[in-house]
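[audit] Reproducing an earlier prediction to check determinism. Same input, same settings, fresh worker. If the tokens differ from the archived copy the diff job will pick it up downstream; this log only records the rerun itself.
[audit] input (275 residues):
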Amino acid sequence: MAYGLLKGKRGIISGALDENSIAWKVAEKAHEEGATFVLTNAPIAMRMGEIDKLAEATGSKIIPADATSEEDLTNLFTQSQEILGGKIDFVLHSIGMSVNIRKKIPYTESNYDYFMKGIDVSALSFHKMLAAAKKLDAINEWGSVVALSYMAAQRTFPFYTDMADIKAMLESIARSFGYHYGLEKKVRVNTVSQSPTKTTAGSGIKGFGDFYDYANAIAPLGNASAEDCANYCITLFSDLTRMVTMQNLFHDGGYVNTGVSDYVMKKLGVGGNEE
């Protein structure tokens, strides 16, 4: 059911690889809610994914951009305004990559060149994106920028290796840049800390399936789906949340605040709350 929450708004959505991607779901929901937007991804990701299919379904243009390139990001915001006919109202940063995880390198033995690449692609790109938009004055007052994060930024999850540190940096950038952007331009900047989600990227992490089941057993509401996350992002893009900024917002079915569940206790043979 659509509510017209983004009617007349213009946006940029990055990171839609395939229909399992959170960014893909965000694009579908934004379209349903009346927004117009451009889609963007790195050229190599575009070759691997199905973004053309999404563009056709939502009537959107695609602008290839390397999120680590200041020149590409400047071009992204310049072209987006030309295509959409005005300043931008919302931006989704859904960009993450770890070569150390991909190559199954243990955290304590991290390859630092790979580590720095991960920082550049997954965190510094957020700063560069915000800086490019601010320099061009490309985002309207009360606009909203959202980046996707994960709870490993604040809790230890050994399998998440260097991405945990990288996501911590991402969340810090949202707070730091969010202060300046809010003060000067009334632009909101937040991160959403999402449940483990069965995306193409997430499923590539060693042990992901087992942890997905564990988190689902802990969270009182279960894991939030990619579609649920998209709905939440839409509310953050809307005018209903115009005073929310510099926040890391947990969207995980209550997982972050649950120590242990009855279900898990019973699985361990410890018992549980008998009702």
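[audit] rerun output stored. Observation attached for the diff report: Residues 112-136 form the longest helix (25 residues).
[audit] end
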